[in-house]
Recover the amino acids of this structure.
C-alpha cells in the first residue's frame, strides 16, 4: 500500500506527462475534436464501479479517454467565440492553486493567497487606469463579474432612493430602470435576471454596435426623475470589437444620478496600451467594470474580475458576516466580500502570475498583438474573392461575410471540416457571418497566414 505522499507524487507525474503531451501538440494538431460528447459518454460512463482505482490509473484513463473530444482551444489558429490559450506562468500557478487548495474567502485563514490576489488587484487597477481604491473581486468569469458589479449597483441606486434592498428585498421596491445598448452581451441580461431586475431597456446602437448617445439621452428622458437608474456600457462588442463612446455616454448619464457599469469582458484590456487610449476614453468615469482574465489575459478558466469604485457598496452587496468566520477588520476586508461565493479557489493567483511573467510591457504587447493579428486576418480576408469584412477592425474581432448567407454558411462549414483553423459562425446586422476573435497570446504571423489560406481554400 502506497502512502498518501506517494500517491500524490505518482498522480502528479501522470498528470504532468499527459499535460505535456497535450500542450506539445495543441499547436500542430487539427483544431476541431474528432469525437462528439455522445460518442464519448460510454468511454467515461457505465455503472459507477464498486471498488477503488489507483489515482494515477484514473488520471491516465481520463486523459486518454478525453483526447479525441478535446478542442484545440489553445491552438494559435483557434478563433472561436472569445476563447484562447493559457500563458505558461498562469498554468503553472493554476496547478499550484489546486495543490495548495486554499479556500480564499477569509484573509486570516489564507494569508498567502489573499495577499497574492490583493497584489494582482493593485496591478490590474494600475494597468487599466482605474481608481486605485476600487474593490476588486476574482469571480468565475465576466457573467459573475457583471452580476457582482450590478449587485453593488442595485444596492446603491435603491439606497439613494431610500430603499434598503439588503433588508427589505425587492418586493415593493421602487422600479430600477436599466438601460443597455441593443448589442450588449446576453450575459448582462442574465446577471440582471439573477438580481431580480428583469429585462433591461435596449438603447439603439450605430453600425458598429456602439450605443448612440442621442438615443441614450432620449431613453434617459423617459426614465422618471429620481428613479433608481443603472446604465450598462460595453468595452468590446463580440462581433465588431467596438467600444461605446464612454466619455460622452457617461457625461450624459451624469446629468442625473445613476450608476454606470461597463461590461469589458475582453475589451477593457484596451485600457492597457497607450496606443488604444482613444477606444476607452472616459471609461474610468464609470462606477464599476467587469472583465475576464480568461479571455484577453490568457489565464486558465475560470477567472473574471469585478471592479467597483465604491468599495463599501461592493462589500455591502456581497459580503457575508457569520459568527464562525473571522472578519477582517482592515479597510480592505475579506476576499469573500467582493465575490458571490464564500468558498472558492485562489483564482487570482494565475492572474498575478500572468502579469508577473508579462510585466507591463508584455501585457501591452499581448493586447496590441491580438489587435494587430485581427487586422492581418481582415486584410487577408479582403483579398479573398467574394469576402467582405463588415466591421471596422479596431480590436480583436473580425466579421466576414460572403455574397449571401447560404454561401457564408457553406464556407464556414468547409473551413471547420478542413480543421486548420476554427472560426465561429454567427449572425450580425441581419447577415450570417464568420466571426474571428483573436484571443490567443500565442497566435503568430504563421498562424495568421495558414488561417487566411484555409479560409481561401474554403471559399474556393
Ligand atoms: C464572454 C463575454 C461575457 C461573459 O463572460 P464569461 O466569462 O463567459 O462569463 C460577457 N460580456 C462580453 C462582452 C463577453 O465577451
Amino acid at each position: 500500500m502506497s502512502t498518501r505522499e506517494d500517491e500524490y507524487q505518482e498522480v502528479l507525474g501522470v498528470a504532468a506527462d499527459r499535460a505535456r503531451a497535450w500542450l506539445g501538440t495543441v499547436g500542430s494538431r487539427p483544431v476541431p475534436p474528432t469525437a462528439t460528447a455522445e460518442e464519448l459518454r460510454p468511454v467515461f460512463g457505465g455503472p459507477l464501479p464498486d471498488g477503488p482505482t489507483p489515482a494515477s490509473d484514473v488520471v491516465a484513463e481520463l486523459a486518454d479517454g478525453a483526447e479525441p473530444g478535446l478542442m484545440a482551444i489553445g491552438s494559435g489558429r483557434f478563433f472561436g467565440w472569445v476563447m484562447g490559450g493559457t500563458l505558461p506562468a498562469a498554468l503553472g500557478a493554476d496547478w499550484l492553486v489546486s495543490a495548495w487548495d486554499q479556500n480564499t474567502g477569509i484573509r486570516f485563514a489564507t494569508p498567502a493567497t489573499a495577499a497574492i490576489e490583493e497584489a494582482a488587484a493593485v496591478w490590474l487597477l494600475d494597468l487599466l487606469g482605474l481608481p486605485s481604491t476600487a474593490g476588486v473581486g476574482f469571480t468565475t468569469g465576466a457573467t459573475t463579474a457583471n452580476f457582482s458589479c450590478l449587485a453593488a449597483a442595485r444596492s446603491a441606486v435603491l439606497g439613494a432612493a431610500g430603499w434598503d434592498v439588503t433588508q427589505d428585498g425587492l418586493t415593493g421596491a421602487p422600479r430600477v430602470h436599466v438601460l443597455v445598448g441593443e448589442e450588449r452581451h446576453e450575459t448582462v441580461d442574465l446577471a440582471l435576471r439573477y438580481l431580480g431586475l428583469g429585462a433591461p431597456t435596449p438603447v439603439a446602437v450605430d453600425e458598429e454596435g456602439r450605443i448612440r448617445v442621442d438615443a441614450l439621452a432620449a431613453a434617459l428622458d423617459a426614465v422618471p426623475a429620481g428613479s433608481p437608474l443603472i446604465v450598462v456600457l460595453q468595452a468590446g462588442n463580440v462581433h465588431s470589437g467596438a467600444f461605446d463612446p464612454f466619455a460622452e455616454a457617461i457625461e450624459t448619464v451624469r446629468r442625473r444620478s445613476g450608476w454606470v457599469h461597463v461590461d469589458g469582458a475582453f475589451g477593457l484590456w484596451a485600457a492597457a496600451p497607450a496606443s488604444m487610449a482613444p477606444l476607452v476614453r472616459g471609461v474610468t468615469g464609470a462606477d464599476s467594470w467587469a472583465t475576464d482574465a480568461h479571455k484577453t489575459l490568457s489565464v486558465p478558466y475560470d477567472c473574471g474580475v469585478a471592479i467597483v469604485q465604491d468599495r463599501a457598496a461592493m462589500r455591502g452587496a456581497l459580503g457575508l458576516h457569520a459568527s464562525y468566520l473571522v472578519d477582517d477588520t482592515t479597510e480592505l476586508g475579506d476576499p469573500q466580500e467582493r465575490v458571490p461565493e464564500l468558498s472558492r479557489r485562489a483564482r487570482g493567483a494565475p492572474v498575478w502570475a500572468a502579469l508577473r511573467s508579462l510585466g507591463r510591457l508584455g501585457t501591452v504587447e499581448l493586447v496590441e498583438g491580438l489587435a494587430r493579428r485581427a487586422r492581418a486576418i481582415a486584410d487577408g480576408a479582403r483579398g479573398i474573392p467574394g469576402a467582405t469584412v463588415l466591421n471596422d477592425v479596431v480590436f480583436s474581432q473580425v466579421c466576414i461575410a460572403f455574397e449571401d448567407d447560404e454561401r457564408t454558411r457553406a464556407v464556414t462549414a468547409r473551413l471547420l471540416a478542413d480543421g486548420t483553423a476554427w472560426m465561429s459562425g454567427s449572425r450580425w446586422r441581419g447577415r450570417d457571418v464568420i466571426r474571428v476573435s483573436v484571443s490567443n497570446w500565442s497566435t503568430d504571423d504563421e498562424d495568421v497566414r495558414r488561417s487566411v489560406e484555409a479560409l481561401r481554400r474554403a471559399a474556393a
